[in-house]
Amino acid sequence: MGRVAAPLREQVIAALRQAILDFQLKPGQRLVERELIEQLGVSRTTIREALRELTSEGLVTVVPQRGAMVSAPSLEEAIDLYEVRASLESLVVQHFVERASDEEIDKLRETVRDVAKVAEKTADTREILGAKDAFYLVLIAGARSAALQQLIEGIQARVQVLRATSSRSRDGRTRWWPSSRPSSTRSRRATPRWPRSSRRSTSARRRSPRCTVCARPKRSRPARSLLSFRM
């Protein structure tokens, strides 16, 4: 019995997680246990265990007197999340520079070109983020740090939801914020979006992607930021 229950629980968690990432379950939407039980055909216990796991991942928030709902991060929470992610990524870049093989560096260059091609041909957020995910897979693999990989994977689902919601405007076109904002905390807090006067056009961003990791610097030189057009 135990062997059957464990995979079922994981399947339910994966199904709910994917529904959140695909926006079938939208930020702020209530997650009613009865409805989930009917839709997934599982027990109340399994649903509750799945919701607890997704709560620990930050994808679900439990509000007193209201129950569980899909997390909808505030601006302050978004800033904190991106700052944590940026700190982890700087270490990943440093390790990549020190440990990656020439083949992995070539692979990283290729993924950067792929991101540029996808951004040039489509404004579909999922396709662009999918290309960027491929970049990060190569980067993390080349860093060869299991500890950093675990930490980044721990916040990746929250980042995926956040960057997808924040990079799509109401009319469906892609925006290049908030992760394209200035790097200092003070600038981000003072200016949630790029000022019109200093915002580069989308076409300009697409034509000039840069990757500061692909060219291996001297080992004594500290690693720089990841992608100039980060999302």
Task: Please give a structural write-up.
Keywords: DNA-binding, Transcription, Transcription regulation. By secondary structure, this protein is mainly alpha-helical. The chain has two domains: 2-70, Arc Repressor Mutant, subunit A, CATH 1.10.10; 75-207, Four Helix Bundle (Hemerythrin (Met), subunit A). Helix 4 (75-99) packs across helix 6 (125-143) and helix 4 (75-99) packs across helix 7. The protein starts with a helix and ends in a 24-residue tail after the last helix. The model is unreliable at 1-5, 169-209 and 218-231 (pLDDT under 50). The chain has helices at residues 2-21, 33-40, 44-57, 75-99, 102-121, 125-143, 146-166, 185-190, 202-207, and strands at 60-63, 67-70. A two-stranded antiparallel ribbon has the order 1-2. 60% of the residues lie in helices and 3% in strands.
General shape: elongated
Helical percentage: 55-70%
Classify the secondary structure makeup into a structural class: mainly alpha
Order of helices and strands: HHHEEHHHHHH
Mean pLDDT: 75
The poorly predicted ranges are 1-5, 169-209, 218-231
What is the straight-line distance between the termini?
Answer: 44 Å
Radius of gyration: 19 Å
Count of folded domains: 2
The tally of beta strands, per DSSP, is: 2
In spatial order, strands of the major sheet run 1-2
DSSP helical segment count: 9
Mind telling me which CATH architecture of the largest domain this is? Up-down Bundle
Proportion of strand residues: under 5%
* Sheet of most strands: 2 strands, antiparallel
CATH topology heading of the largest domain: Four Helix Bundle (Hemerythrin (Met), subunit A)
Reading off the top of the CATH hierarchy, the class of the largest domain is best stated as Mainly Alpha
Domain HTH gntR-type: 6-73
Protein name: HTH gntR-type domain-containing protein
InterPro entries: GntR_C, TF_FadR/GntR_C, Tscrpt_reg_HTH_GntR, WH-like_DNA-bd_sf, WH_DNA-bd_sf
Pfam families: FCD (PF07729), GntR (PF00392)
